[in-house]
Amino acid sequence: MFTKILLFVKSTGYLNLELGQLIMLIIALILLYLAVVKRYEPLLLVPISFGMLLVNLPLGSLMTAGHDGQVGGLLYYLYQGVKFGVYPPLIFMGVGAWTDFGPMIAQPKTALLGAAAQFGIFATIFGALTLGFNPAEAGAVGIIGGADGPTAIFAASQLAPHLLGPIAVAAYSYMALVPIIQPPIMRFLTTQKERQVKMEQLRKVSKREKIIFPLAVTLLGGLLVPSALPLLGSLMFGNLMREIGVVDRLLKTSQNALMNIVTLFLGLTVGATASAEAFLNPQTIGILVLGLIAFAFGTATGVLLGKVMYRFSGGKVNPLIGAAGVSAVPMAARVVQKVGQEENPANHLLMHAMGPNFAGVIGSAIAAGTLISILD
């Protein structure tokens, strides 16, 4: 009996917990705190942080692959949707089903702000190459600058699967920290006069325009960058279902049940890739630093182009909306609204910021497709 008790004690996680696992458990709890108490993207950070907690509990074997007739861990099988690039396009379909591209159609020039914000991706690639990452790894790290978690996961799964954990955690963490990271950059690069600019109300976009838009983007974008079609096509299909108004059941499924299920599985399995062995190393620190630089650089280039538009429009464009060019939807647009109203309480920039915000989603998908086609 004593021998059996001793064997049981030795089989518990308490006696097998290593320092690295303890550190990762603490990080997981910190992320959970940010999600629950600070409300930083809880729909993403709650499953990610809990997946991280689960995989770092010793002897759980939730990410163990099945072989020789043995059953693998639960999260290992769910992770295959990430590994084979299934979950990110499904997320994009749900995003498209929720999205009204009217603000971008009403002001096509704001699409340039979304494009400008993607410069953070390409600038960071050179930094990653300097730190010793190979071209494919550098491309996967650089995509963090788009501030789009599903895009970062999709690109990393194609270009550098072994870096998926830290890249995904970095991408979603910076998305959650948009309200902290962006405002100082926005204020530093703009004057008080620029931040107080009140923009005119957007024109009304017709139903026909909204239906033509997803079809046109799919055709033009798909022909330009075929490797972006999994993301871009899913995004536009979801949006087409929204605008045509004849597939309500499919639309509601994409917006709710499917979106929630995929977000849940994606978050848990992304967190589960952040094991102590994969996460606690100098390479991961480099990814986190480069990801922050990419995100900051993307925000800055968007604001700077916004300043150019401010000059050429005779002061009619508020340059703050350029910060929404990163594709953290809708958080970046809300930050623009908040900073703008701090300077001018009568200022309502949200709808104006949604244009570059949606353009950033499209831009990040095209950028990811471009990198995959060149570097894979």
Automatic annotation (TrEMBL):
Keyword set includes GTP-binding: no
GO cellular component terms, semicolon-separated: plasma membrane
Biological processes, Gene Ontology terms: sodium ion transport
InterPro entries (alphabetical): OadB_MmdB (IPR005661)
Membrane spanning residue stretches: 20-37, 44-65, 77-99, 111-133, 167-190, 211-237, 257-280, 287-305, 357-375
Superkingdom, natural source: Bacteria
Keywords: Cell membrane, Ion transport, Membrane, Sodium, Sodium transport, Translocase, Transmembrane, Transmembrane helix, Transport
MF (Gene Ontology): lyase activity
Manganese keyword on record: no
Localization in the cell: Cell membrane
Entry membrane topology: Multi-pass membrane protein
The protein's name: Oxaloacetate decarboxylase, beta subunit
Species this protein is from: Halanaerobium salsuginis
